[in-house]
Amino acid sequence: MSALPTKANLAASTNIIVPGSGFKIVSGMPKTISKTADSGKQITSHFCGDCGSTLFRDGPSFGDNKVIKAGIMDDVNALEDAKPAVELFVGRKASWVLDVPGAKKVNGMP
């Protein structure tokens, strides 16, 4: 087994992209880890130092935006209000995972 599983998020990772100007951490200070993504650009994951859950990501591919893990949001209606616009890494998804109607398909990270 490799040090980092390559298919850990195979089925889905639901994220909401928000402008950095509208983003605020309300308590605590996340820990971070940065790596070079498939695109060759740096990506930084911010995570809870207590439980290890990923909270959000940022990096040059996203401009000033923050890519927030939808499950951490206080607003329970956030997923209802956000229609998926893009599916990433479509070449890696399992055959039983359905396409999201109307979403742009990208094989990798832009």
TrEMBL record:
Keywords: Lyase, Metal-binding, Zinc
Gene3D superfamilies, per the entry: glutathione-dependent formaldehyde- activating enzyme (gfa) (3.90.1590.10)
Residue span(s) of domain CENP-V/GFA: 12-91
UniProt-listed Pfam families: GFA
InterPro entries (alphabetical): CENP-V/GFA (IPR006913), Mss4-like_sf (IPR011057)
Tagged with keyword Phosphoprotein: no
Family of the protein in this entry: Belongs to the Gfa family.
Protein name per UniProt: CENP-V/GFA domain-containing protein
